[in-house]
Amino acid sequence: MRRLALWLTFALVVLPTTLVSLVFSLFGIGWMTDSLRPSTDPMDDRHRLASLLLLGALVAGWFGIATLWRLFILLKRDWLSTRPHEVLAGLLAGSAVSVALIVMTPTAVAFVYAWPLLAVLHFGVEFAGRQPLFGKERAVWPATDPAGVGSRTTSASRRGRRRDTAMSNGFGNELPRAHRNTSPRAHARYLVVIDSGGFVVARLFLESLEQVGEFDAATEEVAQMLARARADGHGGDPRWDRALAGHSAAERAQARVYVLEI
Questions:
Q1: How far apart are alpha carbons 174 and 163 in whole angstroms?
Q2: What is the dihedral of CA 210, 198, 152, 253, to 10 degrees?
Q3: pLDDT value at position 166?
Q4: Domains of the chain by residue range
């Protein structure tokens, strides 16, 4: 039911809001372009001020819409955000624009601008129930508190147990299948917890720094491995340049590297 509610809110609120906002934004940009043209008419000064206010409303409104899309992806995949303050700011910005439009609009059509607030309320409550919107921001799980990851696990951990069986029984400690001769696979040696575009992921590497797995860092299996792992610096070390080449320098600097037991 939870996922169905997410999809319904997205389809009935977020998507229509995005399309309607796109149409009105195009008209608004055209009006702003005309208003900012040089002119000696005193009325044009008011138009310029109004165009600047409209520009601010467009920026804040689209920030709010982008946040709703981002929250939909986060909630649908049971991921955590590494920048909850940005989520809160986006929800507040979008809500402020909706409220301003409601105040300036006749009552008969005000409900149109109140429609996006349904998604703000739904997604905001869902996200706040999984991850605090206030307090100190965290980019990745602290290297000194590996057990803390377990306290942040969500319903993804239950699916993770089924989805990541290959991780817990394969790369970490593979067991031979019954009645079949299989060649042993190399054990994963390193676990890197790193921000990837706003989502925290865990990546497994062999001793040769070849990646052999990637999954949501909020799963229970990650917490179990970190409880037995030893911290080994961060992803900004030069030896990780090639293995983490797909990440930005800031993401690599904040990443935490752990050595797994073999």
A1: 16
A2: 60
A3: 42
A4: 2-130, 148-174+183-259
